[in-house]
Amino acid sequence: MTAIKHALQRDIFTPNDERLLGIVNVCKAGKKKKNCFLCATVTTERPVQVKVVKVKKSDKGDFYKRQQAWELRDLTVVDAKDASKENPEFDLHFEKVYKWLASSTAEKNSFISCIWKLNQRYLRKKLEFVNVSSQLLEESVPSGESQSVAGGDEDALEEYQELSAREEQDIESMMEMCEFAVSNAEAFAEKLFKELQVLDGANIQSIMASEKQVNILMQLLDEALAEVDTIEGKLSSYEEMLQSVKDQMDQISQSNRLIQISNTNNGKLLDEIQFLVNYMDLSKGHIRALQEGDLTSPRGIEACISASEALLQCMNVALRPGHEQLAAVNQQQKLFAELRDTFARRLTNHLNNVFVHQGHDQSSTLSQNTAELTLPKHSPLHRDLLRYAKLMEWLKNTHREKYEGLSRTYVDYMNRLYEREIKDFFEVAKIKMAGTSKEAKGKFGLHGSSGKLTGSTSSLNKLTVQGSNSRRSQSSSLLDMGNMSASDMDVADRTKFDKIFEQVLSELEPLCLAEQDFISKFFKLQQHQTVLPQRQHSYMVRLMMNKIFQSIEPELNSLIALGDKIDSFHSLYMLVKMSHHVWTAENVDPASFLSTTLGNVLVTVKRNFDKCISGQIKQMEEVKISKKSKVGILPFVTRFEEFAELAETIFRNAERRGDLDKAYVKLIRAVFMNVEKVASESQKTPRDVVMMENFHHIFSTLSRLKISCLDAERREAKHKYTDHLQSYVINSLGQPLEKLNHFFEGVEARVAQGVREEEVSYQLAFNKQELRKVIKEYPGKEVKKGLDNLYKKVDKHLCEEESLLQVVWHSMQDEFIRQYKHFEGLIGRCYPGSGITMEFTIQDMLEYFSSIAQSH
Q1: N or C: which end of the chain has fewer CB within 10 A?
Q2: Domain boundaries 1-136, CATH class
Q3: Which residues have CB under 8 Å from 359's CB, separation 6+?
Q4: What is the pTM of this model?
């Protein structure tokens, strides 16, 4: 083991400036592996580092290598397994537990002892040794085998002391003085030993010579000890005196502390008494106001308000712990409760009487307002009651039941009052509204445009087309700004109805807003502290308003039904007016009673408007025409024009323009569809004429009114009008030159079959003789006669309202000239050099058309 120790020191630890102090041959417990060595080392440089190093013999050679190292400061527990029996096993607890089996118990004990000594010398940390004999943990070095293994090094560890620089310098100087210090170390050591003996003898003689001085020093020490005893006695007496002073000061301090506590308690008691007096004392004037204050005069009301606020403040004061147990406090609280109940009872009775009295006073004045379409104003009632608003707030905070009872009483009486006023108000409105059309009483069954546009029929099912004069007498024309002619209901009636309806809404709106504002202020429902209370207050206001004005919505619906019965076109006026008022109300308060109620009524008005549009469409679908007279402009086309003019006037700058645009689209599509239907069924008038005239009228109407949502329909109407005009002209012109048309159609057919144009004249049926024969059948006089007959026929087909005769005649002239040039071109190409020409010229044709138009 000594040889291994020296080899390890030389090969492994010396190069790393480390000294090997302890070693043990171990292997891992429970595993059959090669042996290794655990070494305890210290560094030669300061600060000293103590490590436990695991060294293993290399498999490829006879040398050792360093495998793993742990700092001794990281070691926490050393477990020797058994202190009483010899057991080579032991555990070292670093970051984990390492179990080892030593080659002998002696080596294990020697290594554990070395670790204990290193810890005591360099670390002084709390290292736990478990199952280790106390003999191993002594400062002395053990004997026996352990001494042979590690004892020498341990002694050297304890006795070793590094040479200082001066000591090294002295040693070098001595070695320089001796010639053989290096060559003969034993002789140099013998010389040093002799010199040391000489010095030791000199030291002994010096010590013996100084014995007298030592005795003198001892005597001085004895005297000094005696003086110390004297001083200690004096200090003890001083300490007793100071202790007496301390006891007296403690008594004075205790007395002062008791006095201070007494003063503090007195101050707190005074604060409590002042608190109770200041916050729980109600003046006699306030008590008298609460018990018998005048609730009718302004001064008495102000006194009651001040007293009620003072009482509420006294009742809501936050009492401190223990105040409830004081008899005076309980007595005051009982007094406050009695005053609260007494005043709440007086206030409730008085306000109940005010509600009843004011309600009867207002109802007695209703008869004065029945002649005019106005509602009574309740501002005097509100002004009188608002003086009690603060008292109502006090009642709400102190007596919730009485507050709610007053609310119900107010709602009940005001409901009766408003119900009578509103009923009378709407009766006047209905009388005035019905008076706008007394002469049309028998025509209330008319709906939609038929109610305002026809004078002798009640349904479009009975409408017939009986000529332009009869149709003109049945339809009415709108003047500018929506003014209607007086077939059944003149413009004055419609204007008067519009004013009546606007007056009704204008009277209801301020009435509801004023009442809602009063309820919010009087019943204190307008707080805005948080979102949730605000929603609750808004709900309470709406609930009270719904109960008070529960008759408004039915009365409005009844009035709307009457207006719609008189004339369904009234729904246009009502839709615009109602939409405007709903928009205004929503801008003020979207959740208000007025906004909600008018919104519900607006749904009814919109439904009536939609019903009016559907009625118009149904009447279009059921229209019938006469088989004996020409059609002309269809009644529903004229009525659409009148409807559009009226609607554009009414809906100018209206909020609900979108509703009208949707209605326009439905109506115009129905008009288009039914015009084509009537044109297909027409027997007297050609289909092209019916389509041309009616779509021309529709195009003119849409172009004049400039309805943006119907731009596509306007273009479509123009296209249909143009197409059918061209079709009618072509079909009509085929008759005056019928044989000539047939001849040249044959020529074009031959050319289409592949015959060259210059060879057509060689065809038997289309030679020059046949062409001259056909041309001679149409001299200028015959052409003019044919055109005159054509003019008369076109005149019979067309109606006078649209004035399209000259337009059609001019189109026919252009088409005739086109055909003439076409025929001339065919003659020039197919019969070149023949000299064949028509019996009349273009100039002749222009004179024919002009003279015929002027003659008629």
Answers
A1: C
A2: mainly beta
A3: 413, 414, 416, 417
A4: 0.54
> d(Cα 452, Cα 487) in Å, to the nearest integer?
7
Confidence of residue 40 (pLDDT cuts 50, 70, 90): very high
Cβ(150)–Cβ(22) below 8 Å = yes
Helices (H), 69-210: 105-118, 145-146, 152-159, 165-177, 185-209
Both structure tokens of 721: 């009008």
Q: Which long-range contacts (CB under 8 A, 24 or more apart) does 358-367 make?
A: 358/384, 358/385, 359/413, 359/414, 359/416, 359/417, 362/417, 362/421, 363/416, 363/417, 363/420, 363/421, 366/420, 366/421, 366/424
Nearest to 92 by CA among 61, 71, 117: 71
User: 688-727 pLDDT, tens per residue?
Assistant: 888 888 888 889 888 988 888 889 999 998 999 888 888 8
Alpha helix stretches (DSSP H) within 622-656: 635-650
Pairing of strands 50-57, 36-43: antiparallel
Pairing between strand 128-130 and 77-79? parallel
Which pairs from 151-155 meet CB under 8 Å and 24+ separation?
A: 153/20, 153/21, 153/22, 154/21, 154/114, 154/117
Determine the Cα–Cα distance for residues 203 and 174; give it in Å rounded to an integer: 21
Q: CB–CB of 89/97 below 8 Å?
A: no
Domain ranges of the chain: 1-136, 187-280, 623-734, 746-854
Nearest to 750 by CA among 761, 760, 762: 760
- Alpha carbon distance 424, 426 (integer Å): 6
Q: Taking Cα atoms as reference points, which of 718, 682, 703 lies closest to residue 799?
A: 682
Angle at 784 between CA 782 and CA 790, to 5 degrees: 105
Query: Which tens digits make up the pLDDT trace of 430-467?
Result: 888 887 544 433 333 333 333 333 332 222 233 233 33
Does the N-terminal peptide bond of residue 47 adopt cis geometry, omega within 30 degrees of 0?
yes
